[in-house]
Amino acid sequence: MALTVKESAKALQDKLMKMEETGPTALGPAVATSIGLAAEQGAVGSQVVICTDGLANIGVGAFDEAKTE
Questions:
Q1: pTM of structure
Q2: What angle do CA 47, 18, 42 make, to 5 degrees?
Q3: Which of 1, 32, 38, 56 could pair covalently with 46 via S-S, beta carbons 3.0-4.6 A apart?
Q4: At a CB cut-off of 8 Å and minimum separation 6, what does 5 contact?
Q5: Can you point out the beta strands (E) in 1-69?
Q6: Would residue 59 be called left, alpha or beta, if left means φ above 0 and alpha means ψ between -120 and 50 degrees?
Q7: CA dihedral in degrees (35, 40, 44, 45; nearest 10)?
Q8: Which pLDDT does position 36 carry in this prediction?
Q9: How many C-beta atoms surround the C-beta of residue 27 within 10 A?
Q10: What is the SS3 assignment for 19?
Q11: By residue range, what is the domain housing residue 27?
Q12: Distances in Å between the alpha carbon of 36 and those of 28, 32, 44?
């Protein structure tokens, strides 16, 4: 039986807080893969939640250089 996000919130938060950044962020490919998996294996109404440590800096959608003005 699958749990809802509300039912699994504490376990999700614990896992999220244990994550560490270890390399580049390929956000575009990750989103495309996640959506594909949700469409194939998820139930109707499945959602993709994106958690990132920063800027997409490799792969499709990568920013060459962040500019702040």
A1: 0.55
A2: 20
A3: 38
A4: 12
A5: none
A6: left
A7: -10
A8: 93
A9: 20
A10: coil
A11: 23-69
A12: 12, 6, 13
CB atoms within 10 A of CB 52: 11
The answer as to whether 15 is a domain residue is no
Which residue type, as a one-letter code, is found at position 51?
C
Question: Which residues, including other chains, have CB under 8 Å from residue 66's CB and lie 6 or more apart?
Answer: 55
- Number of domains within the chain: 1
Using CA atoms, how far residue 51 sits from 1, 69, in Å, is 24, 25
pLDDT band at 68 (very low <50, low <70, confident <90, very high): low
**Is residue 9 assigned to a domain?**
no
Residue 43 resides in a domain: yes
What does the CA dihedral 21, 23, 29, 33 come to, rounded to 10 degrees?
-50
Compute CA 61 distance to the chain's CA centroid, rounded to the nearest angstrom: 14
Residue 8 within a domain: no
